[in-house]
Amino acid sequence: MKALEAQRRQGPPDDWGPWLTRIAVNTCHDRRRAGWWRRFQRGSEQIETVPLADGGPTPEDVAISNETRRQIWQVFRGLPDRQREVFVLRHVEGWTGPEIAASLGLSHGSVKRHLFRAVHRLRAALGGAA
């Protein structure tokens, strides 16, 4: 609208590019001086506090996750063979205690003890966070 008004007042410009740019810049200045801009800025959240649209992990989360995964695997590989077997059968395969005991030829109490020790070591390695 401002371009049409300016063209009616001044006639067609000699060079359209700078003329349209000047109208656009002046329109932006007019809007900034208007009261609605200040009200909009006060009512809006700071850009730093607006949540990102992408809900994926941040680079920091990925780095922490990779470090945590590395620690878990390192501790897991350091477990005695029997504790590793019991842990995998219970938490990866989803077997029950009696099923594990029957499969490995152990008592149910022995399975519980191996599982407790494996989980305890993993938790200790992660600072009790697991």
Structure, briefly:
The protein has helices at residues 2-10, 16-33, 35-43, 59-78, 81-92, 97-104, 108-125. With 130 residues, the chain is mainly alpha-helical.
Characteristic terms for this protein:
Arc Repressor Mutant, subunit A, 72% helix
What does this structure look like?
With 130 residues, the chain is mostly helical. Among the domains are: 2-39, no CATH class; 74-125, Winged helix-like DNA-binding domain superfamily/Winged helix DNA-binding domain (Arc Repressor Mutant, subunit A, Orthogonal Bundle), CATH 1.10.10. The protein is built from 7 helices and no strands. The longest helix is centred in the middle third of the chain and has 20 residues, at 59-78. The protein starts with a helix and ends in a 5-residue tail after the last helix. The model has no long low-confidence stretch (mean pLDDT 82).
Helix percentage: over 70%
What order do the helices and strands follow? Answer: HHHHHHH
Q: Do you know the CATH architecture of the domain at 74-125?
A: Orthogonal Bundle
CATH topology of the domain at 74-125: Arc Repressor Mutant, subunit A
How many strands, what sense, and barrel or not for the largest sheet?
A: none
Question: Between the first and last Cα atoms, what is the distance in angstroms?
Answer: 63 Å
Estimate what percentage of residues fall within beta strands. Answer: under 5%
Radius of gyration: 33 Å
Q: What's the total number of strands?
A: 0
CATH class placement of the domain at 74-125:
Mainly Alpha
Q: What would the average pLDDT be, to the nearest integer? A: 82
Give the number of helices: 7
> Which residues form runs of ≥5 with pLDDT under 50?
none
Question: Could you name the CATH homologous superfamily of the domain at 74-125?
Answer: Winged helix-like DNA-binding domain superfamily/Winged helix DNA-binding domain
Shape: rod-shaped
Class of secondary structure makeup: mainly alpha
